[in-house]
Amino acid sequence: MENAPATRSFEKWLDSFINFEKLPQKNMFWLDTMHFFCERLGHPEASSPCFHIAGSKGKGSVSKMIACILQEAGFSVGLYTSPHVSDFRERIATPGGFFDDAVYSDAAAELMHAVQSAEHEKKIPRTLTWFELATLYAFLCFRRARTDWNVFEVGLGGRLDATNVVTPKLCCITPIELEHTEYLGDTIEKIAAEKAGIIKPRIPVIVSHQTTHSVYRVFQKTAQNIGTSCTFVDDMIRFREISYTNDYRMNLCFESPLFSRPVQTTLRMLGSVQAQNAAQAALAMKTALPAVGEAAIEKGLANASLPARFEILTYRSMTVVFDGAHTVASMENTMQTLIALFPSRPRHLLFALAADKNVEAIAGLFRGTFHSITLTKPGFTKHGDIERAEAACKSAHLSFTCEIDFEKAVQSAFEKAEAASAVLLVSGSFYLAADAKRVMNLC
After folding, report:
1. Phi/psi at 269 (nearest 5 deg)?
2. What is the pLDDT of residue 241?
3. Of 124, 293, 373, 407, which residue is most buried, by most CB within 10 angstroms?
4. Closest by Cα among 274, 277, 416, 254 to 337
């Protein structure tokens, strides 16, 4: 997939700024710079009403589902998510594809001029970061595209995330996990408090199912203190059906007092966690826009998909699943879905994690599931710790091979899976999924 020339040029400029995704650092989160540039640019963040989505897992899926429902209801929609897998424009798009090239090129010129003039005047309050600029770029693209609605996925945390300059019509908070503890806090309650930083006065918030009960109290207390309503998906949704089809789809039926009838649809996004995400997206829509009908919700949910979220592709005669799972809970969901869909097929794994992930706990999930495991690094550029991953797999008593040469590792994993007529799971990192696709010409 080739990026538009203007987008490639903008990316090159963007890469000259600090990028947390590639090189995590402390003390690089604040909102001063975002407020400064939003004012300087004429507040593009307020050009259209929006939804704001935070959480540890599932926030990209919920964002895409909401955007697809809005589009099905007849609105033009801007969708801001991260990371991208094959093309930078995946981050700033419509639910069904990309904007016209002119939207991207004109917004890039506008932002680059604003930054360069502010630098010349020495007015920028702090050092600019890659994600701040990407977020400002999304605001400008959506304003130029004159979208009716926008959906913004939080990058990291919530309280100090660059997206937290928007004033949404509704917020969603997806499941919270113990993640990024060096930046968000060393307990799940502290992390939840950071996510709760997107909650604002008189703006309703929908909170998904949480595995840790204390997290509910964090959100409830924050909402009460701020003065807004907090709705929990668990209290509002009853599932009537979750089942898989023979063509790798998921039948879903759920009901709620907010709906005039049960919502019944077939999802392209797979796994029990996606049933929860769909329910949250539907509740969010009915809360913010009660006039949107159940048919639009059903069609929007059915249309939603994201790359590397249990994405099933065919390579020659074999089935390949690309999934960006990189935490214990998300990998558990991926494994459950893989076994449910392919209970009797041989299963092979191409696996890599970023250096800051809990490889010891994740490796233990693989016991008894895979006929072959290939360890490598998470793509061409992302930093991993392959020695630590190797030690974790040995401790878990797994049979595996280790290949530091990324391209060789990908080709070897595909060859072994094809020879065994196996399903190949490529998982552990979005960067792994993206670069493996490039190696095998699947993007």
Report:
1. -85, 125
2. 97
3. 373
4. 274
pLDDT single digits (tens) 138-193: 999 999 999 999 999 999 999 999 999 999 999 999 999 887 777 788 899 999 99
Domain 5-303 has CATH 3.40.1190.10: yes
Nearest to 348 by CA among 401, 403, 273, 407: 401
CA–CA distance, 316 with 31 (Å, rounded to integer) = 48
What residues are paired with 312 via a beta bridge?
321
User: What are the residue ranges of helices labelled H in 121-230?
Assistant: 130-145, 181-184, 188-195, 213-226
Residue 157, judged by CB atoms within 10 A of its CB (0-12, 13-18, 19+), counts as buried
Residue-wise pLDDT tens digits, 284-297? 999 999 999 999 99
Q: What are phi and psi for residue 378, nearest 5 degrees?
A: -80, 70
CATH numeric code, 311-439: 3.90.190.20
Beta strand pairing status for 311-315 and 318-323? antiparallel
- Contact between residue 190 and residue 222 where contact means Cβ atoms under 8 Å apart: no
Residue ranges for the chain with pLDDT beneath 50: 1-2
Instruction: Please give the structure tokens belonging to residue 296.
Output: 């639009």
- What are the residue boundaries of the structural domains of the chain, listed by start? 5-303, 311-439
Exposure string of 52-89, with b = 16+ CB inside 10 Å and e = fewer, is bbbbbbbbbbbbbbbbbbbbbbebbbbbbbbbbbbbbb
> What pLDDT score does 24 carry?
56
Of the candidates 368, 372, 364, which has an alpha carbon nearest to the alpha carbon of residue 395? 364
The pair of structure tokens assigned to 32 is 């001063």
